């Protein structure tokens, strides 16, 4: 995940009151909101990593010289990355 993506995610999830510095009497900034935000970021990062594996498989097929063992391991890596929680 890039720095810009992390900043964008934080801006989306942090309540407006906190971004503007006016928290009022009842802030909406909660532990749950942060957990949800970081879980979403982690999920996006896992998917980005799995897509690297997917592109490697696609590139292998495009060469016309397919190494089925390499493709199998790469596909398994993508599956394992996506399965992480």
Task: Give an overview of the whole structure.
The protein has one domain (3-83). It is an all-alpha fold and 85 residues long. It has four helices and no strands. It starts with a helix and ends with a helix. Helix 3 runs antiparallel to helix 4. The protein is elongated.
Concise overview:
This protein has helices spanning 3-13, 16-20, 31-63, 68-83. With 85 residues, it is mainly alpha-helical. α1 (3-13) runs antiparallel to α3 and α3 packs antiparallel against α4.
Task: Give the SSE map.
Elements: H1 3-13, H2 16-20, H3 31-63, H4 68-83
Helix pairs in contact: 1-3, 3-4
What is the helix content? over 70%
Derived from helix and strand composition plus strand pairing, the structural class reads mainly alpha
Query: N- to C-terminal separation?
Result: 16 Å
Question: Could you tell me the mean pLDDT?
Answer: 79
Q: How many distinct helices?
A: 4
Strand content: under 5%
Largest sheet: none
Total number of β-strand segments?
0
Question: What Rg, in angstroms, do the CA atoms define?
Answer: 19 Å
Which key features would you list for this structure?
85 residues, mainly alpha, 4 helices
């Amino acid at each position: 995940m890039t720095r810009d993506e992390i900043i964008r995610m934080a801006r989306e999830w942090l309540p407006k009151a906190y971004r503007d510095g006016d928290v009022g009497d009842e802030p909406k900034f909660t532990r749950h909101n942060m957990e949800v935000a970081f879980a979403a970021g982690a999920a996006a990062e896992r998917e980005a990593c799995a897509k690297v594996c997917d592109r490697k498989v696609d590139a292998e097929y495009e060469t016309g010289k397919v190494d089925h063992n390499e493709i199998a391991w790469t596909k398994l890596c993508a599956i394992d990355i996506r399965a992480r929680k």
